[in-house]
């Protein structure tokens, strides 16, 4: 009886949290799906059934095509850059450098800053002004006589979104450094010593031993950074504001819903963002659960 009583008491204690999740997460997701299938436009709710009309119109909208292209560019530059830089920093710190604690804190510090603050700072650093009005990186390149590196940054046609990804790399590379450093520290030194005895050089050790053992860490970084890049909003707004060449789905959703009052289409964009994130997260969760079960 006492065991059943403890079980019912446990269920009773967690039931408010379960109820809150059902209402405020899954309930609102279901409501958003319903709105995305409606003709709702304006302040007054209109649940007239529209089917997949909002989704079809989105995929035929040239602006949404720009959003997809920008998201792919931003995700590619941001994820690859953060992983490569984070791994490089982790390898450097793993060499037993003096002041490791200071450098580890220094690299992690940008994570404590919001994307809004990062965007404001990098908006000045990436000032596209030319001539006598140079500032930020362009002014630094001018002083160093590296004029060939002076560019328009986020105002560059077609690839301006990649410049904004540099700010995101600066902010999140410390995170990838931390998880890679933890992964490196978990690898037994005996494996490296055995490889050295067998005649392997450091490059071969990293290629054939370290990197394969760090594959779960790399997968985790890919998933976390990938889903963050799909939802990017505040960083772009802080750096460049609302500009069509730098448009992404989150900005389109905001303007469609709150500026244009087209709630049906805005909800459709939100659901597509949710699905894109789920495509990344759900396989990772399944992989994690399967790995834990096998262990």
Describe this structure in words.
The protein is mostly helical. It has one domain: MetI-like fold (Orthogonal Bundle). 73% of the residues lie in helices and 0% in strands. The protein contains 13 helices and no strands. It has helices at 2-36, 53-59, 62-93, 100-108, 115-125, 136-143, 160-185, 189-197, 202-213, 215-230, 234-240, 249-259, 263-294. The radius of gyration is 24 Å and the shape is flat. The mean pLDDT is 90.
List the helices and strands and how they pair.
Layout: H1 2-36, H2 53-59, H3 62-93, H4 100-108, H5 115-125, H6 136-143, H7 160-185, H8 189-197, H9 202-213, H10 215-230, H11 234-240, H12 249-259, H13 263-294
Helix pairs in contact: 1-13, 3-7, 3-10, 4-7, 5-7, 5-11, 7-10, 10-13, 12-13
CATH architecture: Orthogonal Bundle
Task: Specify Rg, calculated over alpha carbons.
Answer: 24 Å
Instruction: Give average pLDDT, whole number.
Output: 90
Top-tier CATH class:
Mainly Alpha
CATH fold topology: MetI-like fold
Succession of helices and strands: HHHHHHHHHHHHH
Question: CATH homologous superfamily, by name?
Answer: MetI-like
* Poorly predicted segments: none
Give the tally of β-strands.
Answer: 0
Structural class label: mainly alpha
Helix content: over 70%
Mind summarizing the main beta sheet?
none
Number of domains: 1
Q: How many H/I helices?
A: 13
**Span from first to last CA?**
33 Å
Outline, from the CA principal axes? flat
What percentage of amino acids are in beta strands? under 5%
